[in-house]
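Lay summary. Proteins are chains of building blocks that fold into shapes, and those shapes determine what they do. In this project we predict the shape from the chain. Here is one chain we studied, written as its sequence of building blocks.
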Amino acid sequence: MTSHVVVIGGGLAGIAAAVDLRDAGLDVTLLESRQWLGGSASSFARGSIMIDNGQHVFLRCCTAYQGLLARLGVTGSVAIQDRFDVTVLFPGGQARLRRTGLPGPLHMARALASYRLLSVSERLWVGRAALALRFLDPAEPGLDRQRLGSWLAARGQNERARRLLWDLFIVSALNIPGDEASVPLAATVIKTALLGANDAADIGAAVVPLGQLHGPAAATMLDRLGAQVRLGARAQNVEPVPGGGFRVGLAPERAGRVADGGPDTSPVIYADGVVIAVPPGQAARLAGSAGVPQASAFEDLGASPIVNVHVIYDRKVTDLPFAAAVESPVQWVFDKTRQAGLAAGQYLAISLSAADSYVDLPVAALRQQFLPALEQLFPAAAGAGITDFFVTRERRATFRQAPGCGAIRPGAVTAVPGLALAGSWTDTGWPDTMEGAVRSGQCAAQALVDGLARSATVTRTAVRDAAWSGVS
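And here is the predicted shape, written in a compact code that computers can read:
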């Protein structure tokens, strides 16, 4: 008899897990509390255009995520740079970081050598610290408790170098102030992306609204694979059943509907295995109800917000597809005009990571601060009209990737047989990213497949032994 697995959560982690579980021949029911798949990488309509909830980009080294895109058949809906190339704006000027064709890590040497925002001696010290990070073992005992700022300062990185170079990548990658970041996670980013393979850091992004990239294709694929997807279905608890398996209880008012539109109001689902692929707070509640020890500790990971400031001008103010900024409240800014479907003018979106100081500010205050900041970076904006200005806030965009988080992040395997965890917050070895989410789903699926196979072997052995015990 084929084992039945329930996957709770229809974000990238849950989608990846469900696909791999079906590939392994297991029956799968995927539960998603929202009315769409894709998780936090979503979009919404504002008038005639589509707005992404955040600026989700990826790098060429994100192989698991790109593999999922290929499986979903949507690689034509993303674009990747030919080579890593970032314009760094500051009031009154700009610099450029662009890799060469040399093998890594030499491919970044010229970019650093020509980065005129730092002095020659500061650039030399940056090179030394980068090489130290390249040879750092993220699993080194005690490293998880260290602050990146202290680690860098001990290796000659002054405040200017940290602010004008290191923070460009660390703040956006880890969604936390650079000095407060986890050293192992920062090392993973630098080692894998900037100092790894020649093309590892090339930047990719969707060319269609995020809500059209993952969700519809995932629903189509899972239906083709024979998985059942129930949308609008919120799992309330997961309880082990005596003798094996689990009882997944659904909130009565959120039993959901199957993805093809038909109702499915069953308040209980029985399963041989469960993958919990939801954010840490929800996972703590569900895993706790299933008897996972220390599940409540998942919430100790905390959360970091991201704020996105959206500005639509009545004319084009820049030719750059995206840019980073220093000496400015702007961190990264993206031209979303074509992706959103804007017919006239230009739509710029500012992405603010580690946005604790911005997340509760009123729109008027953000407008007062960021419109002049954009004019300092893009002089043409000073003469342009504003046709729309709005703000989106992700209060719990990622877990807080601070010192000590490595000791809290759980692996895919739990102490409860048949129950696995997924999500970019779990211990994937990666930061909280789309790549980490996909990897976590794949790990959870493999753990569950292996666990159910072992359980079946044990059961068959027990049956055989019982049969042989009656033979004289």
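What the prediction tells us: DSSP finds 13 helices and 19 strands in the chain.
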